[in-house]
Amino acid sequence: MSDLVKMGPPDNQELPKKSLGAIYFERIKKWNANRVVLIDWTGEELTYGQLLQSTVKLATQMTKLGVRKDDVVTILSPNSTKFILTVLAGFFIGAKVNSLNPDYTPGELKHFFEVCHPVLIFCTARSLGSILELKDCSSVNIILYDTETVDDVENFDKFVEAGTFDPGFSPTKLDPNEDVALILTSSGTTGFPKCVQLTHASFRVTMIYTRDPYFIDVNENERILAFLPFFHILGLGSTLAGILYGAKLVILEKFVPERFLSLIQNHRVTKLFAVPPILLFLVKSPLVQKYDLSSITDVLCGSATVTKETEDLIEAQLNIHCVRQVYGMTEICGAATVIPKNSKKHGSCGQVVTGQQIKICDPETGKALGAGEVGELRVKGGGVMKGYLGKEKETEEAFDEEGYLKSGDLGYYDDEGFFFIVDRLKEIIKYKGFQVSPAELESLLISHPAVKDVAVIGMPDERAGELPVAFVVKQPNENVTEEEIVRYIAEHVSVQKRLSGGVRFIEEIPKSSSGKILRKKLKELL
């Protein structure tokens, strides 16, 4: 192995190389049946014994409905205990679990359903209207998480209660290296987000480094607030790791400031998985002073880089050694690098985790670069995706000739093997941890009759990370306003994709001779 490739520790074999269904089934049975594992924000508790009963009942009920190995089961819901039960039951029967943002509009859902073809959909009443608008879903079974009943839609609690617990139940056998466990979404630069296929073996690697005491160190003494969205790999991965390793998980439906703070205080939360806007809230909101957050001993932050100033403020406020930054992607099933426990290096996103390897390459030539040289991060290892569902060309283009996934992020490593991210090759806008594709917004805007040409970029924002801004060239003799364009986009996309940075009208979009938008020039205009 070349010195130019940075390796994480080898697979420690702590988890058997089996399906996730087999791994979780055996681990859940191993824990004391009376041990509380999940608590939701209302205070309702679930023990490992109840978790085993409910997931097996749900798995057998899904099988009775006709769900088979390799079928896609879609979840459209905010965080809940029921969401986690569904994921585990899906693992047990070998279904591909597809979790989507519950804020998606009918148009966005139509796109994903056409790619994934779910046979069963779990959702809340909030998403049900959008699903029922789609003619393609008229024959798909829908199960509602909410307590109310709706005609022609099965209620989750009744569905599970009707099931039986078979003591002889065993998870479906499958090939962990080939069979897909999760289909999560990741933004692409060419329109709609792509569907990332993660195998059982990929997610097993994620579970290995989440337990590693050198890296994420999820263990039975931790109390974790599960508030990051479960349709993201960071939120789902950290929660499922907690179940595997005996942590107590407090599930919060979504970030609500006072509820978030009171749950940390009341449940004595020890480990906080966060994104930069949450850290900014902790250092800037006067609400924080009303609560006791002294139980927190470890903060891990992903999705975007944290400034040194924010790191310093959080460390002082929570009296912790270090904000541990994490660098990852959906396509690698979570993290590639993590600041190790008890290490400190401001601005770094850490060292390579177990089971992964990284090289820094010249984006033009592909040549591997040495310490201190800036290039594209490329990742290889057990955690890397199988590919984009239904997109063979994009999958092929995502990897280099040595099988490394091209991250699209620019960075470097130092002499100690610590990595630093400096910029993005790809143009994705990161708004509050959500990835927003400029190309998707551009294709919508260009369809507006008053728009002649358009380009969308991210405008730096301390709270959100980046705000989507549209540069618009009007059609001759058209008098469209900023408000009209902002409203037009808001009618077609979910909240995080709206033009929260506004609209700038210009005479011409700067482009290269080959027709590519010169986004750097637009950033200079801002």
Please give a structural write-up:
The strands form 6 sheets. The protein has an 8-stranded mixed beta sheet with strand order 8-7-6-4-5-9-10-20, sandwiched between helices. Strands 1-18-19-21-22 form a 5-stranded antiparallel beta sheet, with no helix packed on it. The chain is built from 15 helices and 27 strands. The model has no long low-confidence stretch (mean pLDDT about 90). Helix 7 packs across helix 8 (about 235-245) and helix 10 (about 275-285) packs across helix 11. Among the domains are: about 45-175, 3-Layer(aba) Sandwich (Rossmann fold), CATH 3.40.50.980; about 430-525, GMP Synthetase, Chain A, domain 3 (2-Layer Sandwich), CATH 3.30.300. The protein is globular, with a radius of gyration of 23 Å. The protein has about 525 residues and is α/β, with parallel strands linked by helices. The chain starts with a strand and ends with a helix. About 30% of the residues lie in helices and about 25% in strands.
Structural class: alpha/beta
> How many E strands?
27
Q: Biggest sheet, strands in spatial order?
A: 8-7-6-4-5-9-10-20
Radius of gyration: 23 Å
Strand coverage percent: 25-35%
Tell me, what's the shape? globular
CATH architecture of the domain at 47-175: 3-Layer(aba) Sandwich
Alpha carbon gap, first and last residue: 45 Å
Sheet of most strands: 8 strands, mixed
SS summary, helix count: 15
Low-confidence stretches: none
CATH topology of the domain at 47-175: Rossmann fold
Q: Helical proportion?
A: 25-40%
Average pLDDT taken over every residue: 92
